[in-house]
Design goal:
Low-confidence stretches: 1-5, 21-29, 56-63
Strand order of the largest sheet: 1-2-3-6-5-4
Largest sheet: 6 strands, antiparallel, barrel
Number of strands: 21
CATH architecture of one domain: Beta Barrel
CATH superfamily of one domain: Trypsin-like serine proteases
CATH class of one domain: Mainly Beta
Oligomer: single chain
Strand content: 25-35%
Radius of gyration: 55 Å
């Protein structure tokens, strides 16, 4: 058996009369046709001793390129099935993903609420929901523990703690008629008894003391530093709705207020605010954006026919804390508040673009400064006066011993003097 490379054809006997080849395995004459070989004399694979040659194919008639031959039985490739499969797969994947997402969301909301989920699901609730200290909510959180609801014989007012040992500032008209039933309640629902320390009807400031330890006093601000437009919060129990906070701005400063009907007439230069204040807010603190008390809510202006029918219309008035603090300290220290006076009597109800002096006390502050009866004071410490009650209210704002500038008109002449205010000796 051989692979054909070194194969030799056996010698073929020569025809009768023909010369015999001397080359082994090679025929010198024509070979018979073979069903296995063609071109036997030139096929190098048939006979390794035959010469090799490169034969170029003969061009087709007409010089054209040969027509490609394709197998008619071979299947043709089509992209349509592949595209259809991809589309169907994408649609199925999207549908299944959306369905699973919806199912998980609904089941999660249902499980969390115990029933049908309403509304859009929000983000994760932070563990610490405490507001920033400088925010209004942060201010309310700090001040609220110091605010109390004052209950007197069935009536309700407000107040705020000003010392760790339980002193509370409120309005005089809140504790008017108070007896042994005086009590207070705090924002956490706890209650305590309280006793009246003292009151000053003319300034509408009173002090009570709560029988409870561990109290947190408020921070007191400076009412002389506030300005119109400053944001403020009013705390208290309006209409018996305890722990109420309302927001507004300072609407005006040194608004002369005369309050009180059928009893003591109260005068003060008030802080006006548009924060909602109603019955029951009296005595509660008016607080600035820094959490400091700048006033004591006291009076509202209303279109109602009587005080009991009055309601908020955006006009409320507070006693400046500088005045309330001074009065409260007098009450705590001496049991009685000093009243600041200028030493003159004024005419009220007269429209003379100022406060006309009816009389001047001898050796009093006005007389010492050279003022006389008949003079019309037009400004006190730069504040314009419209009529007599304005002078009384503004004088009460200052502490005894304060020196203020006074502008006045005497006949057709105007002048100014400095007046050192004094405390009433009565």
């Amino acid at each position: 058996m051989t692979d054909g490379w070194n194969w030799r054809r056996p010698p073929t006997p020569p025809a009768h009369g023909a010369p015999q080849s001397t080359t082994p395995g090679r025929s010198s004459g024509p070979e018979p046709d073979s069903p296995w070989w063609s071109g036997t004399t030139t096929d190098p694979w048939r006979d390794p001793y035959a010469p090799s040659a490169v034969v170029l194919p003969t061009p087709l008639a007409g010089g054209g390129a040969p027509e490609p031959v394709s197998d008619p039985d071979a299947p043709r490739r089509s992209w349509a099935p592949i595209i259809v499969i991809c589309l169907v797969t994408a649609l199925l994947a999207g549908g299944i993903g959306g369905t699973l997402g919806f199912v998980f969301a609904v089941r999660g909301g249902y499980a969390a609420s115990g029933g049908t989920q309403l509304g859009a699901s929000g983000g994760q609730i932070p563990e610490n929901t405490q507001r920033a200290p400088e925010s209004l909510a942060g201010v309310a959180e700090r001040v609220m523990p110091s605010v109390v609801t004052v209950r007197v014989s069935g009536a309700i007012g407000s107040g705020f703690v000003v010392s760790t040992d339980g002193y509370v500032i409120t309005n005089d008209h809140v504790v008017e008629g108070a007896d042994e039933s005086l009590s207070v309640s705090f924002h956490d629902g706890s209650t305590a008894t309280a006793k009246l320390i003292g009151r000053d009807p003319e300034s509408d400031v009173a002090v009570i003391k709560v029988a409870k330890s561990g109290l947190t006093p408020v921070s007191l601000g400076n009412s002389d530093d506030i300005a119109v437009g400053d944001p403020v919060l009013a705390f208290g129990s309006p209409l018996a709705l305890v722990n109420t906070v309302t927001q507004g701005i300072v609407s005006a400063l040194d608004r002369p207020i005369q309050a009180g009907e059928g009893g003591t007439t109260r005068y003060y230069a008030a802080i006006q605010t548009d924060a909602a204040v109603n019955q029951g807010n009296s005595g509660g603190p008016l607080v600035n954006a820094g959490g400091q008390v700048v006033g004591v809510n006291s009076v509202i202006r209303s279109v109602g026919g009587a005080d009991t029918e009055a309601g908020n219309i955006g006009l409320a008035f507070a006693i400046p804390i500088n005045q309330a603090k001074r009065v409260a300290e007098d009450i705590i220290d001496t049991g009685k508040a000093r009243r600041t006076v200028i030493g003159a009597e004024v005419i009220t109800g007269e429209t003379v673009a100022g406060a006309r002096l009816r009389g001047v006390e001898s050796a009093g502050p006005a007389a010492t400064a050279g003022l006389r009866a008949g003079d019309v004071i037009t400004k006190l410490d730069g504040h314009p006066l419209e009529e007599g009650t304005d002078l009384i209210a503004l004088v009460r704002k200052y502490a005894p011993g304060s020196t203020v500038a006074v502008e006045y008109r005497r006949g057709t002449k105007t002048a100014s003097v400095s007046v050192t205010l004094a405390a009433d000796t009565n």
